[in-house]
Design goal:
201 residues; mainly beta; four-stranded antiparallel beta sheet; 5% helix
Length: 201
């Protein structure tokens, strides 16, 4: 059913300490029953990722995950990943600018302005994988519908495919874009994906 006028159904006030420089980000899961709000902690200490039941959002978040800067830095060492474009923040905290769920809702994907892609456990918020573009800076990313891989589009025009379970690179898709990959999304039903950039030919 469509409405003649847009109506605000709810207003969520973020915790007082979530007043960092970054902007909050929100996303629904594939069922439409759960949505998440990601917001920076004060002082670059990390990010809150709160999960809400869309049918009972007035009761507050049913799960409050914390992605702390220390945990991210530890994961970078564990997975032997260098930050390709260092953070401008004094404590080296990443600036997260995108969040999404996989189809099952048991994993969360977050993208950073510094070019890194993190795969989180959807229930505990722990970091399972950290991916970096093979060439250039990773700008956009998404899960594949089979939930086995992550696609990463970079500013060099390359799209990388990584296996989540092994963490290994599967493919480097080149020659399709002459500029940065600014849009990337998978078809939820068929084995297809769409990508876009500012340069077309």
């Amino acid at each position: 059913q469509t409405c003649a006028l847009p109506i605000c159904m709810a207003k969520l006030d973020l915790p007082p300490q979530a007043n960092g420089q970054g902007k909050p980000h929100g996303v629904f899961d594939s069922t439409g029953m759960v949505f998440s709000i990601m917001a920076e902690m004060d002082g670059g200490k990390g990010n809150y990722i709160n999960l809400y039941d869309a049918r009972n959002y007035q009761g507050g978040a049913f799960s409050e995950l914390k992605l702390e800067t220390k945990d991210v830095q530890d994961a970078l060492k564990t997975h032997r990943v260098d930050v390709p474009f260092p953070s401008s923040k004094e404590n080296g905290a990443l600036t997260l600018n995108k969040i999404s769920f996989n189809e099952s809702g048991n994993r969360i994907l977050v993208q950073s302005e510094e070019g890194l892609t993190l795969v989180l456990d959807g229930y505990e918020g722990t970091i399972q994988r950290v991916f970096n573009s093979s060439s250039g800076k990773g700008i956009v990313s998404c899960f594949t519908p089979d939930e086995k891989s992550v696609l990463i589009g970079s500013d060099s025009g390359i799209i990388d495919v990584y296996n989540i379970q092994s963490g290994l690179s599967q493919k480097h898709l080149t020659g399709h874009h002459t500029g940065p990959v600014t849009g990337l999304v998978c078809n939820p039903k068929y084995q297809q994906f769409a990508s876009s950039c500012t340069n077309t030919w």
